[in-house]
Structures are given as structure tokens and as C-alpha cells.
Amino acid sequence: MRKSILRFSITLCLVSSISAQTAGGTLLGFTSGRADDQRAAEAKFDSYLKAENLSAWLKRLSARPHHLGSAYDKDNAEFIAAQFKSWGYDTQIESFDVLFPTPKTRVVEMTAPEKFTLRLNEPALKEDATSGQQDEQLPTYNAYSIDGDVTGPLVYVNYGRPVDYEILEQAGIDLKGKIAISRYGGSWRGIKPKVAAEHGMIGCIIYSDPRDDGYFQGDVYPKGAYRNENGVQRGSVMDMPTYPGDPLTKGIGALKGAPRIDAKSAPTLTKIPVLPISYGDALPLLKNMDGAVVPDAWKGALPITYHTGNKTPTVHMKLEFNWDIKPIYDVIAKMPGSERPNEWIIRGNHHDGWVNGADDPLSGQVAMMEEARGIAELAKTGWRPKRTIVYCAWDAEEEGLIGSTEWVETHAAELSQKAAVYINTDSNGRGFLGMAGSHTLEKFINEVAKDVPDPETKMSVWDRLRATQIVNGTPAQRNEAMSRSDLRIGALGSGSDYTPFLQHLGIASMNLGFGGEDGGGSYHSIYDSYDHFQRFVDPGNVYGVAMAKVGGRAVMRLANADTLPFDFGDFADTVGQYVGEVTHLADTMREDTRVLDQQITSGMWKAVQDPTETNIVPKVKDPVPYLNFAPLQNALAKLQDSVRNYQRVSAGKQPSPAQQAALDEVLYKTERALTRSEGLPRRDWFRHQIYAPGFYTGYGVKTVPGVREAIEQRDWREAAEQIMIVSRTIENFAAEIDKAAKMF
Asked: Which residues are known catalytic residues?
């Protein structure tokens, strides 16, 4: 431990020294003189921020359950709108009418080898003041599960991913007509019933295993932060990788009178009934399972031996829902730009929760509100943004990014012309700054992070993040953190409100938030409360203030830069990584196929289900053919040439004031060039050709998704087609960079 502390201390000194050399001076997009003015404005902005505001708003907004369609959800929207109006923003509430099922029947019971009916509830705790509001709480359920009444044997499917089903099938386990029990984790929850249905299963139960989300991680609530035996993770299982938003109005805003498809034909509803349960309810089911003992990687932390099941126990599930159309409420607040009002910097966080939602989402919402208030206070001193700032408090994010998607679809034409950047937050906690998004903004957000102090260490949040990557990262992360001037940001899949902006309209986007030292198991339960948050997530809301500083700087710099601070060097570097990955993926699969063929030939495969059985072998997969990646590699070379030329001609220069607005439009529309109106194969709503949620990962990103997923699905014809499509997309992006270069 002493060696680790010493190494960490040396690392902090090293990165602090490096950061000190880069802080101050110029800012991306600003002339040198204006950079000093901008930093002075940011210092004044910081002085307005007060942690007590965040605490008061958090307590007020989380005082009652505020799910979609509830009275307090509307009340919260009106309260947030009133705050923005009082600060001087041009504020309105936009309403949409969307499909929202709520449960009227929930029954899960073990019928053999013994009778047991699951409780399916979360009890109130005396230590949690709001946990007893049962009359207003949504029951534990998964939204957009279909109705169903099914009975069948239970099969344990680990995390319910495609790879887990491959193992079960190789073991000779017949899945048709069975009910899956899957633990949360490993993939987004909506993937679990999706894959189960594809394998002929008739129902799906999802539980929180204590290894992933409970006492294996630490003391459970209320003694500690982690999920107790009765905690249940609610959540949507809408097939969002197909399209998010209202299931009945794909591609158009869900306004009154909008054409709607019939709910029974909505493609984003599940094909089988699905319900979440606690690990307390899961224990009697799992301890009665027959079949083989599962592989070590499948074992959870319950006090049982984990088996695959297959014949015992048998389970009966009955689910019925009220399929209602409910109103939702988006709060939209604008501060008009003084010089370029038709360039919009959009900032958003959702306000709806599954129950009281103090952490998810209100910790991010109150940080955004304080950020907006600080900017409004600054405006009273005479500061005005060049570009229009738009603050958005979204509704119905939890059910499927509905509020943001419906707003984007309604205003798509205007946003395509005016939206320059979208910045998103969601939950926020104690720890390290998370940064993900468009890599054209990577250098910009690194620069922002270097100027915000960390509340615990007093070094910059960038320094602290870099230090932990050096000390705790993989060898590759360690090397990059030491050698690159910018920390590499993540790519965006899905799971929050950036999706319609980035992946539908091609608006450069960022997702930001602190975390990593805010352990807890309150997610989507009645225990995501003010009491839990103030004890375990961010006591005193100090990281909420840090988030306001990060978000405020990002918004102010984007809104007030002489030219938008887009940079293409990091983007070209990242695309180069992606091209290398998909090329290597084909080579790896080719080698895996060869090894599998050898194993089958030599009789090495044996059934997991019965060690004495030698006839069951995995399905032979077709060989991986030669794929011509030359078009992708040539497009990458063209991109790199265009970036080098842009960097050369723009170095140390600023366009004339008359040209700045024209250059801005070229810069922010470069992201549009990465989209294709036809979208991705089998999911045309997703248009971005570089970033998308994975069809079988949900939240998890698939980069260069058309090519990558075609290879993963062994569709070689489609892979060849997608290589050509993505190559042309990258070339189109390079052409936009060339257009920007000519303006210098």
C-alpha cells in the first residue's frame, strides 16, 4: 500500500507539472486577447455558484415520485420552468403525448418442485424518509414488456448476451418454451428479453445479483450504499437500438393528432413478457435449479451453487399492463445570442425519474440549473453570448429517451440548420470526470477540464483523471495518458438524451459527469432518495458544483468563441483506431474459426450439460473470407491529409470577422457529413456512420457500426457493402475539412 501511495503521489506531481504548463494562455477558438477576458468571466461565474442551492432544489424535486405521467412530474417541470424564467431566460414547456404502459397484474410464482410466490415489492425503511410513499410509487416492472401469461421450466442464462446463449446451445440445452432468468449487467436490460425471444424462450426474469449489485460490493442500504435484498432495478426494455422515443410515432413528433401505429405492431416492444426482481426473490428460484454447475464466470454471490436449470424449477408468469397515452413536459429555456443567434449551443439533462430519482437524474439536473443561474447572473453584469444558449430539462428519458427524441423529431429541420453542439449530463456523483462524445470536441473538452479544480484534491479534474489512468489503467491507457497531450474521450452509444442529437441528426455532442467514488445500489429503486444521496453519493453537493463549473465553461466557451472550437486531429487519430479494430476483428475471427475447426476435429468439445456425452459439439461456423479494407484505409489516408492541411493553414490564424460565421457553419456541419439518410442496416433511424448503440449491446457503443456489426454477424456481403459506404462517408467528411481550410 505504501508503494501504491508513493507511486500515486509521484504521478500527481508529474501530471500537475504538465497541466500547469498548459493552463492559461490561449483558448481554442479565441484570439489571445479574448481568451483572457473569457477566463475572467469564468472566474466571476464560479463566484456565483452555491452548493446550498443544489441541495435545496434536490430535496424539493425528489420529495415525491415523479415518473412519466405523474402529477409531481408535471409539477417539477413547472417549478424548473419558473426558475429559468425568474433568471431571465425565454422559457416555455413543450408537451407531447406518448405511449406509457403501467402494470395492473404482476404475478411470478414457482410451481414446482415447491410452491413459492415472489413478493415483487420494496419495503419502506425508517432511515429513508421518502421510501414509504407507496401510493405514488411505480411498482417494480420493466416498461414496454408485452402482456403475457406463461409457464415453463427456468434456465439460467448468465447476463443474457448472445455469447451466453452460444454456450448454452453448445451444451445441448433446449431453450424453446423455457423462461430465462438473467442477472443484470453485462449488457443493457432490453437486450436480455430480445435475445431470449430470438432463441424461442417464452418469458424473461431479470434479477440483481449481489456480486454485481449488492453485499459483495459493500454494506447494503441503509447501513451502506449498496442494493439490499429487496431492492429492484426498474427500467425500460424498449428496443432502443432499433429506434428510441415514442414507440408509436417513429421519426415524427408525438404531438396531438400525429399519426400513430397500433401498439400491437410497434417494433420496439418486447416479444415476450419480462419482469425485474430482487435477489431476495431470486434466491428460492435459483437454489432449486437442476442441470449442470455453471462456469466460474457465470457464478454470482448468492449462498448457493449456480446451475443452468432446464427442467426444474417450473415458473408461472402473468403480466398485464394499462396501455395509456400520457402527456410529457419538456422545459426549453433560451438566452439569445448577440451576434450569431442562429447558432445554438444546447445543454440538457432529464428531470423525470423512476421513483424519487435523487441521483438519477436530479443530481445532474440541479447542477445544470445552478450552472444556468450562474450564467444568468453573469449576464446581469453585461456579459452576453455571441451564440444562442438553449437549456433543456427533458421528460420521459427513463422510458426510452422520449422527451428529447420527440423534441428533436419535431424541430429536426430547424435543428439541422442551427444546432452547433449538444452537451448532455445525467446522474452526477463523487469522483472522476467522465468525458465522452464527438472526437471533434476532444481537444476542446480536455482544455475545459484542465481549468476546473477537483473539490477533493484541489488539482484540476483533468489532472486527477489522468493520474488514475496512469496508476490504475490498462497498459494501453497508461501509455496514452503519459504520451498524449489530450486524454482520449469515449465514444457514445446510447442510454441518455444525446442520442437523437448525435446519431439521428449528426449534431456534435458530449456527455459529461462525475463518478467512480459514489458506490451504491439505489439505481431505479425507491431508495434512490435524497437521504441516500446525501449520505453516499455526493455529500454537500460539492461535485455538483464541480459539474456546474465544467458545464458552465463548456457552454460559455462554445457560445462566446470567435470561431467554434472544433479540432480534427484527435478525430482522425480515433478513426484510425476504429479502422484498425475492424480490420483486426476479421483477422481474429478467421483465426478463431480455424482453432474451432481443429477442436471439433480432435474431439476436444464436450457438453457442459453431461460430462459423459461426447456427441454434442458447437455449430461449425462458415470460414471468414478475404475482405477488402483498402477503400477504408484510403479514405483514412485522405482524412489524415485533409487534417494536416487544415492544421497548417489555420495555425495561428483567425478568419476575418466577416468570415467567422460562415466558417462556424462549415465547422459544425462537419458532423452532419458523418450521417447517411438511409441510416444503418435494419435500423434507418440511426444515421451516424461512426457512432451507434450496438444492436446487441444497447447502451454500449459500436464504432463504425455498419462494418463492425456485419463482420460480427458474419454477413460478408453486407460487410463489403458497408466498407464502401463508410469509406465514402469519411471522404465526405474530409471534403468538409478541405472546405473549412479554404476559408483561411
From this structure: 397
